[in-house]
């Protein structure tokens, strides 16, 4: 492994492969019991108690505009840390499956095109080829620091205070 390589966790949504910074991943786990919350957006499946913290569980298919599909034995939850160190927040993301840990040279990552994907390009850090397939590198900070997640953060904090 080259010291400059970026380590990514790859996962699938539909026929597409996405990558996220492996240092943000806290845990990969099978789907378990998720406590539903009232008055939450459709992409919020609820919360789980994760190491004594209330963690919102978000459906990445819904966030990215994919058609809903039944969850199966390959569907997993990836608990990730988003935000700045010290101000970060844990979020569980539901993905179709986890693929590999990928090491990629920064020079191999290309700028994302403006059209042709279900993901808004503001969420993309770039794209690269891995084993003949295109992998979209996501920015968790851009996804979860948008205005639409502010209300969700407040709701989860309120639920944590009541727990």
UniProtKB/TrEMBL annotation:
A GO cellular-component term linked to this record: cytosol
Annotated TM spans: none
Organism: Planctobacterium marinum
Top-level division of the source organism's lineage: Bacteria
InterPro entries reported for this sequence: CheW, CheW-like_dom_sf, CheW-lke_dom
The CheW-like domain, residue ranges: 5-149
One family name in Pfam for this protein: CheW
Protein's UniProt name: Chemotaxis protein CheW
Any single biological process term in GO: chemotaxis
Alphabetical list of PANTHER family matching this protein: CHEMOTAXIS PROTEIN CHEW, CHEMOTAXIS SENSOR HISTIDINE KINASE-RELATED
Gene expressing this chain: cheW_1
